[in-house]
Amino acid sequence: MKNLRLVFCLILAAICLAAPGCQKRSAVILDAQVFEKNYSRPLPEGQLALRKITDPAQIPDYTKAFSDLDGLAQAIERSLNYLSKPSSKNYYPYGDITHEHAVKTLEELKKLVVSGRSPEEMNRIVRERFDTYISVGCDDQGTVLYTGYYTPIFDGSPRRTDRFRYPLHTTPVDLVKGPEGTILGQKQPDGSTRKYPDRTEIHQSGRLAGLEIVWLADPFEVYIVHVQGSAKIRMPDGGIRTFGYDAHNGWDYESIVHKMIADGKLADKNISLKAMMDYFRAHPDEVDRYVNQNPRFVFFKHEPGDPRGSLNEPVTAFRSIATDKSVYPRAMLAYAEVELKRPVGFVLDQDTGGAIRAAGRCDVYMGVGEEAGKLAGVTYREGRLYYLFLK
CB–CB of 252/294 below 8 Å? Predict the structure, then answer.
């Protein structure tokens, strides 16, 4: 890790969930363009992120990954559930991988995971029966930047009170989505659409009055939920409700971290989500000044159960990843070769993010609550990313 990169490890990962499109998670942990490498370097038009490995010596040893299978079978089943939906066929073939091939791959991998075989035996079977593809990464050498995201838990209220004064909003009726959930804009009286207002105009216009679905106590907590794309809110009666992404206003996500550093609000050596929260709690009058520099605004809906990714399936801690779905295959099993504070191993590609772009980025879902947030906050590491497909 280069020190320059490490100090910028902000911890606001994100969820750009949009029905099977690439809109669901709203944002990410960091602004990748402030680092020495351009991890979000776009691939040439039409190029996919994966390259088939033809030299067996370059295939990873999966033995250690097969030693930890906790939650993996369930995560595979969630991907299979997504692939059972007719809309999933719209995103295949992926290169030469057909939809049928993708389904068969996951079915065979699930059988292997629940077979009870030894890790060594499973590793041998995978190497014999499956092809391994490697991500080309940001540099055509396989370099992928791993970051983390999570679901926060905050106190809130279904009604505005003296304490709870800062709302999350449901989607306005004049926001138009395409068939696959892409944001088309704001509906005009003549039936046409134009770009939806940005965050600043939304705040200043009061146009969302009456669309509040829950109220929080801290304006920066609201922004964190916008960035993460979902949250669990603890109500005054002790009950917890989940609020997940429904849409956004169509603007690109912009990081506010480098702006705060440039203004001297945060020291390079003290970049963390906690540091940002502490700063804005001490300076609540500055929240709007900074968050309005990110024009993207996110709308929410009540979601029973666990937070969901862009496949509209629940995400699993340390088993779900977010990638750019324009270059990576939806729902497939991957192997994250990266050294993190908590081992990852096999994962399912089940989510996407507004700043998770191109082949050089991968966001790992780390669960719910404060501890998951702390772990997400220190996740910033280069590694490699491999995908398995049945021969």
Answer: no
Two structure tokens written together for 64? 């250690």
Structural domains of the chain sorted by starting position, each given as residue range(s) with its CATH number in brackets = 43-149+312-390 (2.40.40.10), 151-302 (2.40.240.50)
Residues 355 and 351: their CA atoms lie apart, in Å, by 12
pLDDT at res. 36: 61
Is residue 93 reached through a cis peptide bond, with omega within 30 degrees of 0 on the bond before it?
yes
- Whole-angstrom Cα distance, residue 132 to residue 142? 13
Return mean pLDDT, the chain. Answer: 88
CB 225 within 8 A of CB 154: yes
Q: Which two tokens stand for residue 104?
A: 């068969």
In whole angstroms, what is the distance from residue 253 CA to residue 256 CA? Answer: 10
Look up residue 259 and give its DSSP letter.
H
Q: Enter the pTM of the model.
A: 0.83
> 169: which strand partners?
212
Contact 230, 307 (CB under 8 A): yes
CA atoms within 13 A on the CB side of 254: 16
- How do residues 265-317 score in pLDDT, each as one tens digit? 887 666 677 788 889 999 999 999 999 999 999 999 998 888 899 899 999 99
Pair 12, 28: CB distance under 8 Å: yes
Helix (H, G, I), strand (E, B) or coil at 18: coil
203-233 burial: b if 16+ Cβ within 10 Å, else e: eeeeebeeeebbbbbbbbbbbbbbbbbbbbb
3-state secondary structure 188-219: CCCCCEECCCCHHHHHHHCCCCCCEEEEECCH
